[in-house]
Specification:
The relative contact order is 0.25. It is built from 5 helices and 9 strands, in the order E-H-E-E-E-H-E-H-E-H-H-E-E-E. By secondary structure, it is an alpha/beta fold. Helices cover 26% and strands 27% of the residues. About 5% of the residues have low confidence. The strands form 2 sheets. It has a 7-stranded mixed beta sheet. It has one domain: Rossmann fold, CATH 3.40.50.
Length: 164
């Protein structure tokens, strides 16, 4: 999908979040049957709109505090209390974790913050920027991968969503 502006990217993230909450992803029904957290991998170069997408996505889930990239702290946790009260949502999570692994040098750094435990907990929704840095810790299937690429013009982004 081609996004021609920041606001289009935000709108796409909002639609994606609503699909997830309804229990519908893509063309087929999405059933949360896998073990562990709902994992969304965000891949793309610097400045390709991963954080912009994440901010709009989390706001749609009811996060009302400032959402900034956890580049220097590796992870941020958001409590999804509004989502727990949302009667329309078929799928509910207690926590959303936003990881930015750009600055990590080794997966051992993730052990300190209980990364394995977080991605195994089905109460969690986990968004991971730069997931290739933790590839050996991530599941081989049952995740969503979103690939962001710069477009021809300054504000254009090609965004491809895959369900694996």
């Amino acid at each position: 999908m081609l996004s021609k502006s920041r606001s289009k990217t935000q709108k796409l993230a909002k639609e994606f979040a609503k699909e997830l909450l309804k229990g519908e992803m893509g063309k087929s029904k999405y059933i949360h049957i896998h073990r562990g957290a709902e994992i969304i991998l965000l891949k793309g170069e610097l400045g390709s709109a991963k954080t912009t997408f994440t901010q709009s996505f989390l706001k749609t889930l009811g996060v009302d505090r400032n959402i900034s990239s956890p580049t220097f702290v590796i992870a941020r946790r958001y409590f999804l209390t509004k989502l727990q009260k949302n009667k329309k949502a078929r799928i509910k999570f207690k926590n959303a974790y936003h990881f930015d692994l750009y600055r990590i040098k080794s997966v051992r750094e993730l052990e300190v913050i209980d990364f394995k435990k977080i991605i195994k907990d089905s109460d969690n929704l986990v968004l991971i920027e730069w997931p290739e840095k933790a590839k050996r810790l991530l599941p081989k299937k049952d995740f969503t991968e979103i690939i962001f690429k710069h477009g021809k013009n300054k504000n254009e982004r090609n965004i491809n969503i895959k369900y694996k």
